[in-house]
Write a structure and sequence with these properties.
The protein is an alpha/beta fold. It contains 11 helices and 15 strands.
């Protein structure tokens, strides 16, 4: 087995005193889903992910603006492994603890390994080992093109997911909404000091990020089709899992649709790939 030092990447960091808005901008511009956080001395102290920020934005009741909330309010403890740890052992740790990345250390944190790195590792080492259908997740959460985003985010919270498949009225999959898509809305609306709320003449202003759950604010006027990423990358049920991994890496996405008889019947994600690797431990 190869050790984790061979696949780790140099960590991209952000100060834990920086704002959530800065972290979201950094993730969006760099097309990444996580940052390691540092203290005033430059030491790595934690990790903040797209999913962490997404759920914080949707359920936290703070009145602060996005530029006023420090990364440290949302960041979590970073789980680390030694650089000599076998890759399959790292997959087992990530699968067991339900995390998307680990820090890699010797005397200090020197790198990071993510589900994307493990997906690349699978491509290089396990051609012909499993089919897509062997590891796919059969169920998936979905909404419709004309559903307003307050319903979209409510569904995300209810199902505890970070992506939704968006369908038309004929139940054909047309796109996907992720936290990344919502970030783009939040970075536009969330910087403003207020947003009009016509539901109560006595309370004419609400905090913008709460508008995601507000049917009378932009949460009711912006629809799923306005924010979704169109066209779902898909793969056949009987294809080699390596093909699905390659599609995810090439398209810079976390999951692809799975077709059975040309019908979307499930999802295979990088999380599923990590589970497959964990079983090889």
């Amino acid at each position: 087995m190869n050790n984790v030092k061979q696949i780790m990447k140099k960590p991209i960091t952000i100060e834990d005193s920086a704002s959530l808005f800065k972290a979201m901008t950094h993730m969006t511009n760099s097309k990444i889903s996580r940052l390691l956080t540092t203290n005033n001395s430059g030491n790595i102290v934690g990790i903040i992910t797209e999913k962490d920020i997404g759920f914080f934005l949707l359920v936290n009741d703070s009145e602060k603006n996005l530029t006023e909330i420090p990364v440290s309010d949302v960041a979590k403890h970073l789980i680390q492994v030694n650089e000599s740890t076998p890759v399959e052992d790292v997959a087992h740790i990530m699968n067991t603890k339900n995390i998307g990345s680990v820090g890699v250390s010797s005397s200090d944190t020197v790198g990071i390994v993510t589900k994307t790195d493990l997906t690349r590792y699978y491509i290089q080492n396990y051609v012909g080992h499993k089919r897509v259908g062997d590891v796919m997740t059969v169920s998936y959460s979905s909404m419709y093109l004309d559903d307003p985003i307050y319903k979209i985010v409510s569904k995300m919270i209810e199902d505890k997911v970070s992506r939704l498949i968006i369908k038309n009225n004929e139940n054909k999959a047309k796109g996907v909404v992720t936290f990344g898509d919502l970030f783009r809305v939040s970075m536009t609306m969330g910087k403003d000091d207020d947003v009009l709320d016509n539901s109560d003449p006595l309370i004419s202003v609400v905090f913008p990020r709460k508008g995601f759950l507000n049917p009378s604010g932009f949460g009711g006027t912006i629809l799923a089709k306005d924010v979704m990423t169109s066209n779902i990358v898909s793969i056949d049920y009987n294809d080699d899992l390596v093909m699905a991994c390659t599609e995810m890496i090439d398209s810079n996405i976390n999951g692809v649709g799975v077709l059975i008889n040309d019908q979307l019947s499930g999802i295979v994600s990088k999380t599923d790939v990590v589970k497959a690797l964990a079983e090889l431990k």
